[in-house]
Amino acid sequence: MTEEKQKQIFKFWLNKHKALFFKVVHAYAYTAMDKDDLFQEITMQVWHSIPAFREESAVTTWLYRISLNTAIKWTKKEQKHNRAETLDQVEHLLQENQKHIDERLSWLYREIYRLNEIDRSITLLLLDNFSYREISGILGISESNVGVKITRIKKQLITKSKKTDYHGI
């Protein structure tokens, strides 16, 4: 593959699937600086992986796999360096800077952020209407395990939502 062809594919995918990248970034990074870092990590990984794409799966499935794996690795690296601030320490900063965002959506992203890596990944894929089989393939876990985890995640979010003012979530 020529570098020019790789650039064309990269630009097209970045433009067409930027919402996918931002969902992953919002679920795995919380501060603006960390979001920028993670977005850069994901896009770099996508760039380097383009020549390996064999069209054996949908582009979105493949991009999710790259994005989620990159985000999980990035999260572990950040935790190892203890650079990340806790959610409680930065929550007030995010609320001040993002007043225009629907509070229910902010609540949902905060709760997704608090999930472990696999549950975060499952939640994002489920919100994008991936089937249990597709989620299973992307994450390398069984379909039945996906179903059990989704049931537990839903119960957890419903319970938490009842303790807030956001009963509509």
Question: What's the gist of this structure?
Answer:
The chain has 169 residues and is mainly alpha-helical.
Low-confidence region ranges: 92-98
Number of domains: 1
Q: Give the SSE string.
A: HHHHHHHHH
Over all CA atoms, what is the radius of gyration?
17 Å
Describe this protein with a few key phrases.
169 residues; mainly alpha; globular
Describe this entry's structure for a reader:
The chain has helices at residues 3-16, 18-28, 32-49, 59-81, 87-97, 103-114, 117-127, 132-139, 143-162. It contains nine helices and no strands. The longest helix has 23 residues, at 59-81. It is globular and about 55 Å long. The chain is 76% helix and 0% strand. By secondary structure, the protein is mainly α.
How are the elements arranged and paired?
Elements: H1 3-16, H2 18-28, H3 32-49, H4 59-81, H5 87-97, H6 103-114, H7 117-127, H8 132-139, H9 143-162
